[in-house]
Design a protein that fits this description.
Oligomer: single chain
Mean pLDDT: 90
Shape: elongated
Number of helices: 10
CATH architecture of the largest domain: 3-Layer(aba) Sandwich
CATH topology of the largest domain: D-Maltodextrin-Binding Protein, domain 2
Structural class: alpha/beta
Low-confidence stretches: 1-27
Distance between the termini: 45 Å
CATH superfamily of the largest domain: Periplasmic binding protein-like II
Number of domains: 2
Strand order of the largest sheet: 2-1-3-10-4
Radius of gyration: 18 Å
Helix content: 25-40%
Length: about 260
């Protein structure tokens, strides 16, 4: 296994729980939005859309693994809005009564894909190919905190390759770190979201899409926190995400529409 990667993963795992969102600017309704790392590109644009509509400052974003962000919120971080890459992390806060009632909603969906370096010659065209001798390292998110890591484990189990792939896994602390490892060809393959692969087409290529039913649906929920310092501004940001303009931005980055509520 690549020693620098192991060191980076260990350092990131140590620092992640300590990193708190930036404090709102004094005297301004600057909201803090903690969001899954896979949302960064789209949310940066939606933040600008929100600022234009609100006529004030844009959000202060804190991007990271959904599980780490959830832990920060539980620890008292001054967060206005939380957007997760899986229901599980939002469910924990919901169960504990940390969400402002009536503000939770699913706003996007995604696909799980297997990516390889753009110049790869390993012959990986399916998840089953990860068992080949030429594949020594597979980057995936840490399933304890990264939803994409949990989805990857589900896909491996469903494909019957969990045991063979296990010794090859390089655990990353968020999905964008997985993407970086693959883009730099430090690993032979990695599991990310389709939207992540789409932002670096010159560095990575999609080898396979996880089959339908091979993992839990990738649905993104968003909510305002009950102790949000700026609840009204936070609601306005959620409205921007759900607006026609916000949904168009998400679609442009490859996100799918969220399934209709039942």
């Amino acid at each position: 296994m690549n020693l620098p990667i192991v060191c980076l993963c260990a350092l990131a795992a140590f620092l992640a729980p300590l990193a708190l969102p930036p404090a709102p600017a004094s005297g301004a309704d600057t909201i803090v939005v903690s969001a899954a790392a896979s949302l960064k590109s789209a949310f940066d644009e939606i933040g600008a859309l929100y600022a234009t509509s609100a006529g004030g400052p844009g959000p202060a974003f804190n991007f990271g693994a959904s599980g780490d962000l959830m832990a920060q919120i539980k620890g008292g971080a001054p967060v206005d809005v939380f957007a997760s890459a899986a229901a599980k992390d939002m469910d924990i806060l919901d169960t504990e009564g940390s969400l402002l009632p009536g503000t939770r909603v699913s706003f996007a969906a995604n696909e799980v894909v297997l990516v390889v370096p753009s110049a790869s010659t390993a012959g990986v065209t399916s998840f089953a190919d990860l068992t080949k001798p030429g594949v020594a390292r597979i980057a995936v998110g840490n399933p304890k905190t990264v939803p994409a890591g949990r989805y990857a484990d589900e896909v491996f189990t469903n494909a019957g390759i969990a045991a063979a792939a296990g010794p090859k896994l390089v655990r990353a602390e968020n999905v964008r770190q997985v993407l970086d490892y693959v883009a730099r060809a430090e690993v032979e393959a990695g599991v990310v979201y389709a939207t992540d692969a789409a932002i670096r087409p010159q560095d990575v290529k999609v080898a396979a899409v996880a089959p339908a039913g091979s993992h839990k649906p990738v649905v993104y929920p968003i909510a305002v926190l009950k102790r949000a310092p700026h609840p009204e501004a936070a609601k306005a940001f959620v409205a921007a995400v759900r607006s026609e303009g916000g949904q168009a931005i998400l679609a442009r980055y490859g996100f799918k529409a969220a399934p209709a509520a039942k």
